[in-house]
Amino acid sequence: MANSALQLTHLCSPNSAIPHETSLSPLYLLPRCSSLRETKQIQAAIVKSQLQHDISVVTKLINSCTANPSFSMDHARRLFDRIPQPDIILFNTMARGYARSHYPVRAVALFVRVLDLGLHPDDYTFPSLLKACANAKAIGEGKQLHCLAIKNGLLLNVFVNPTLINMYSECGDVDAASRVFDKILEPCVVTYNSMITGYTRNSRPNEAFALFRELQVSNLKPTYVTMLSVLSSCALLGSLDLGKWIHEYISKNGFDEYVKVNTALIDMYAKCGSLDDAVSVFEKMRFRDTQAWSAIVVAYATHGHGSKAISMFEEMKRSGVQPDEITFLGILYACSHTGLVDEGCKYFHSMVDYRIVPSIKHYGCMVDLLGRAGHLDEAFLFIKDLPINPTPILWRTLLSACSSHGNVELAKHVIERIFELDDSHGGDYVILSNMFARSGRWEDVNNLRKMMKDRRVVKVPGCSSVEVDNVVHEFFSGDGTHSESRGLHRVLDDLVKELKLVGYVPDTSLVVHAEMGEDEKEATLRYHSEKLAIGFGLINTPPGTTIRVVKNLRVCADCHSAAKLISMIFGRQIILRDLQRFHHFKNGKCSCGDYW
DNA sequence: ATAGGGTTAG
Description:
The protein is mainly α. The protein is about 65% helix and about 0% strand. It is globular.
């Protein structure tokens, strides 16, 4: 903003008239402000030229306050409060700001004043308010606004449609969203996008693809935003073939010019198990923003390449791109899964340098980092000292660590904390019960089982799936009905025995070691991966068959699968994240086979 | 262009 600062000096000099229609006008500079400081400088120029009572000028100022990255609804509110008779445009502008702020409910609160003042909501009002409801997960208010939109004859408005669909699906009622969509006679591409996104965000990738197909055969053209959701659905399915098909479609249609699309491609490839393709997309990118860098850091981290994730993170900083909260999630994940406790703590504390306030997810990574490494008491104190209330998930992370490291006493204490918040999670009982069983405390096991029964806790079994030659084999925790289940158990028993021989504990701690896919550990892991391949090979498969999961997921993820199978055999809880990543095909056939 | 809009990957 060096240029505008120069121009401002001119503007603020005494007796300088404001040329309203030239590039020197403060109004012209407002949209170019990149910080609240600059917006305030323009405000000073506006006051100097006596324009501060002009409602249209204040509207522009407020818009500038809500532009990234200078976001300040507090300042916007101060400006708003000085206007004696705000009109609907000013209200709409404030509502849009609040909808995108940390306090979306305030948009709805402000709307009450609109009605009290007898102002009429228009086609700008509903999109902002519905967005606020989506962000606040306020489906009740959203439904009322839906009714009001109908009353005002705005149901078929092109701007209202997508936000209405978005509101329902963000509130988790994707069926309601779908009903709205079906009533729209001529949905525009943005409306299609919002519905495709709705299915994707609610983990219904097949319906997302069905709608994408419908969009393709309509006379509308998909946009790059369509591709973002479609890629995200690919990632949900975990289907690399489908992902490659979409990649070709993207290149053919020129969508690969968009940084966001390339970022979504990186994410898709990583989640479908092909780190190589993810890296190749990243390397071809000419411009890489924070999101693109984060995607590659996360890709390396989730594939177990912790130190590569760290070196990418350092390279990112060197090239002058600012990390954000997601980058830090990636780097903390990398550290915890690579056992780099000191580095992880260092990065966690460096977040403040980037003015990033840690979220519950960052705290979760820290608990995982400390817990996996066996620093259980430290992890416990970490949770105790948090500035926010811990969630059951946070305690659950520590509970798994207690299980890995066999600390029954701490586990008992932790589960009490969990039960204070949520006692309906079957997995928690199972973990502690197994810990009691391992130390021969059968009375405690029985008590826990009785407690589960009394509280009517249902166990939701974890599920893993392995795809061999387009046939998906699903395994549920504690279920031995798969035809090759016994054979698999035998191979995995052998694997566990060998792990014991090299000093590993056949426990969830296996996950810790299995994910250290680097340096001297790598050779060991490759060896065990082969064993695992033999294990998979037992599934009706002659030797030499391509086993996709094993082939594509590479060392670390192989072992992640191994860990999953082993955890299944030992009756442990399987993390939901794994379900997402590995749920690809159904009944031996690509679930999208109908559409392609 | 001349006060304000919808869908968005990590």
